[in-house]
Amino acid sequence: MDKDSTHKYNCNFCEYETSRVYCLRIHMMDHTGERPFECDLCPATFKQKSKLTVHKRIHTGEKRFKCHLCPYSANGNDNLKTHLLSHTDEKPFKCHLCPYSANQSGSLKKHLLTHTGEKPFKCHVCPYSANQSGSLKTHLLTHNGEKPFKCHLCPYSASGSGNLKTHLLTHCGEKRFNSEKRFNSEKLFKCHLCPYSANRNYQLERHLLTQTGEKPFKCHLCPYSCIESGDLKRHLLTHTGKKPFMSSVSLLS
């Protein structure tokens, strides 16, 4: 019995090993692509029947797993376990390149894209690309003119929640980005190519373009290209001859 309990079953295709033959069978499906359990309501397929059972609760709306600390409920035990980390502040998924940590593996995967510079989510209207689908969705609002984030104190509206938060500071009079806070603020986003660091993700993304030489914003009238969309907008004015920034001297003359 002891001999059987210590026996290891090895995968012929990779270094995976397990003490249970059932686990090896499930693992082999990763190599063969086999997913025998199919949902009869959508194209989803699974390696295990238990995963299919949990998936079907998405269609029925059933959420059997309840959080004992808040009203949250989930259709699977794994989702509930992940949620419970938000109450404990535990962040077991840590980045090996910077101090960033997360309570979900998916969040860590998204963060790692900031180090590699990869931006898989492309805009179909302009050269913009992003490392998160949410950032692309927010960007697309700039093309259709939609501004769903509305100020409750004035008629102002914005296409992104970040712009609305910045606007709200004008009502409370808070000067968030003063020099003292800039000096004392921790800069968690670090460049893996040079000593540069930033306290905001978008600042690191912009900096990485200076390292790679990539200039995604291209002029459609000449060979000019640049790193930031604002620079391209200013450049386009050289083609139109428009001068929106008139000096006070010219206005008085």
From TrEMBL:
Q: Does the keyword Zinc-finger apply?
A: yes
Which one of the record's GO molecular function terms can you name?
A: DNA binding
- Can you give the residue ranges of the C2H2-type domain? 9-36, 37-64, 65-92, 93-120, 121-148, 149-176, 189-216, 217-244
Where's it mainly located? nucleus
Q: What keywords sit in the KW lines?
A: DNA-binding, Metal-binding, Nucleus, Repeat, Transcription, Transcription regulation, Zinc, Zinc-finger
A Pfam family found in this protein is zf-C2H2
BP GO annotations:
regulation of gene expression
Q: Where in the cell is it found?
A: Nucleus
Q: Among the entry's GO cellular component annotations, what is one?
A: nucleus
InterPro entries in the cross-refs: Zinc_finger (IPR050331), Znf_C2H2_sf (IPR036236), Znf_C2H2_type (IPR013087)
Query: Is RNA-binding included in the keywords of this UniProt record?
Result: no
- The name this protein carries in UniProt is C2H2-type domain-containing protein
Q: Which organism is it from?
A: Strigamia maritima
